[in-house]
Amino acid sequence: MRLPENIIGKILEVINMSDLTWRTVRLHRKKLNRLQKNLRALSHDFAHRTASADKFSDAYFAYNFPMNLAKIRIVVLQLQHLYPQVFEHLTEFRICDIGCGEGAGMLGIYYGLQEFRKLRFSGFDTSPQMLRKCKDMMRWLKNGDARVQVRLQQQNMSHGLLKKKVAKYDIVILANSLTEMFTDGAIPVNFIERLLKSCTDNGVIIVLEPATKNLSRRLMTLRNDIINRQKGQVLLPCLHSEMCPLIDIRKQKDWCHQSILWDPPDYMNILNQGLNREINRLKFSYLVIAQKNFPRHDFNAFLVISDLLKEKGKKRCFLCTPTGRVELMRFNKLKCPTNSEFDKILKGDIISFKNVAQTKPQYWQITEDTQIGISVSKNI
Question: DSSP string of 313-374?
């Protein structure tokens, strides 16, 4: 996954560093130092649950905007692959972005949708400063593509945001918004239910949150609540409608989140000097929620919820299945052409296989007769 070059150029233009390259680093050292200082402050404030994106808007935009865009794009691409019925025969889209910030969610949708005739974006945010950057980005997008229409509005992110009668939306985005809307306690299921009523029959809600343990587990709880109360259908990341297998495992130490390799732009690698952050991975937790229970494109598939763990004489990973978390293992001596794809598995991939030996309910073993393949890789 790489960002389009025109997006990278626009980001550098907005932060007034259009000519930034490895060769021109010294010319921008003063501003780079300030951005790095502000990024450290943003991390400190986030850890202490203090919102400061407005205060350090250029740093937030340079670092968070491209990552959030890529995350939404990945989710949309996977949704189209596994649930093509969601967008079937739909070439005109209405998208609502709640807490739109600088527009990363809307641009992620734009670059993720493969075919469309018209996109009608509606963005809402409480911050005038964020909306100014969003207006700049969306005007730039609209000027380059006449199929795009945009309406932005400053509005409190209250629970009654979409109570008024409006046109139904095909996609509602909540990218890092629930963190600010519900600062304490669980996310109310009736809030999600109300958003679903603002969606078209085939509409979906995309919820994206940081990959911290507490916020990810809160999404896991929301998923279970939606299923228990039958208030919607959770399409992703799980490929089943049973209770989350990680919610109670190992004394609640596990949490479901994505960790996806990507190729960050050069300017982010420059900015990361001295910060030494793991910027080559996109980490987030998410849900895709719908009113309808769409059948999956590939019904015999499982989500990989761990890295491929390499040990002496064997490799293993963990899968999310309707019966719980399952360990999938292969002895190195049993490697053969039909199961060699196992060596390429990454966290977040969706895999399919035949002829696995289920020696125990939660322990499956790959044999020489096993046929295994990666159905969907998030490392696009």
Answer: TEEEEEEEETTEEEEEEEEGGG--GGGGGGGG--TT-EEEEE--EEEETTEEE--TT-EEEE
Whether 63 and 265 have beta carbons less than 8 Å apart is answered as: no
> Residue-wise over 207-221: b if at least 16 C-beta within 10 A, else e?
bbbebbeebbbbbbe
Instruction: Look up residue 60 and give its two tokens.
Output: 């937030």
What is residue 97's DSSP assignment?
A: E
* The pLDDT value given to residue 379: 62
231, 279, 347 from 174: Cα distances, Å: 18, 23, 23
Q: The tokens of 278 are what?
A: 């793991």
Integer Cα distance of 220 and 248 in angstroms: 11
| Burial of residue 53 (number of CB atoms within 10 Å: 0-12, 13-18, 19+) | buried
**Residue 186 DSSP code:** P
For 353, the token pair is 């296989």
The model carries a pTM of 0.91
Given the structure tokens 């945009």, which residue do they identify? Answer: 150
What is the spatial distance between Cα 240 and Cα 99, in angstroms, rounded to a whole number? 29
Q: What is the pLDDT of residues 150-169, one digit of tens each?
A: 999 998 766 556 655 567 89
Where are any strands of DSSP class E within the chain?
92-98, 118-125, 148-154, 169-175, 199-209, 233-236, 258-261, 281-290, 302-304, 309-311, 314-321, 324-331, 350-354, 357-360, 363-365, 371-376
Tokens describing residue 179: 């963190």
Confidence of residue 8 (pLDDT cuts 50, 70, 90): very high
Length of the chain equals: 380
Bond preceding residue 337 cis, omega within 30 of 0: no
The structural domains of the chain, ordered by start, are: 5-290 (3.40.50.150), 302-376 (2.40.50.140)
Query: How far, in Å, CA of 289 to CA of 269, rounded?
Result: 34
Report whether 83 contacts 108 (CB < 8 A). no
